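User: Here's a protein and a ligand (zinc ion). What would the complex look like?
Assistant: Let me lay out the input and then the predicted complex.
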Amino acid sequence: MRIDLHCHSTASDGTDTPAELVRNAAAAGLDVMALTDHDTTRGHAEAIGALPAGLTLVTGAELSCRVDGVSLHMLAYLFDPEEPALLAERELVRDDRVPRARGMVARLQELGVPVTWEQVERIAGDGSVGRPHVATALVELGVVPTVSDAFTQDWLADGGRAHVAKHETDPFEAIRLVKGAGGVTVFAHPGASKRGRTVPEAVIAEMATAGLDGIEVDHMDHDEATRARLRGLAADLGLLVTGSSDYHGSRKTCVLGEYTTDPEVYGEITRRATGAFPVPGTGGA
Ligand SMILES: [Zn+2]
Ligand SMILES: [Zn+2]
């Protein structure tokens, strides 16, 4: 039984449509495939509709999280996609422009700038509000001479005094929300150091205490030593160990089923989940 629990479609940054993805997964000889697009479930219906006989689909998502300034990805499986709290959080991660711009206005006000939300809304007009509109307000108020002068550490540049970072979910909140929606969480590629700073083992231990179900160990971004270390950590913390391709179609070099998950671990994931059930393929619509 070949099980690949981490794949992307055009619903996020993959290049296969959900229908192409499930067909390609069947052609690659997979028995089980999880669809885990970034912060969205919108590919699920198309994937289910096109599911070939012999392939079982695990519905899921890969949630964008951040803890102590370190970004990370949390795989979530078999949660109820309509559960309101988790749905609202996914939507906020995908589009946080309004709360973010409001946050920047609030910080500017704290810095003594007489900017208002109404002013920024008027500048944005029919466009979707963002940082350039806040910058234009600073020009209107004579705080800076040009829009580009607003993109400095004094004002709105990344890390600047009035900057508000893009919203990413606290992973402990993600674990709680996914559990609340009947799902299972697996920390994706926790040792992928080439992507930037990684989360310390002590924090992974806290996540395990908070209800994290597993960690993804067999992944293209982990070398042999990292896999051995993570396998030891999982054993110490009582976490499930998964392996998966993180397939993105032609966007990345990995192929479907390049790494797989043990059937016993898959069985445990399906036993723990109550929000949704794996969907067996019946031959496609
Ligand atoms: Zn990822
Ligand atoms: Zn991914």
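Summary: The longest helix spans residues 97-110.
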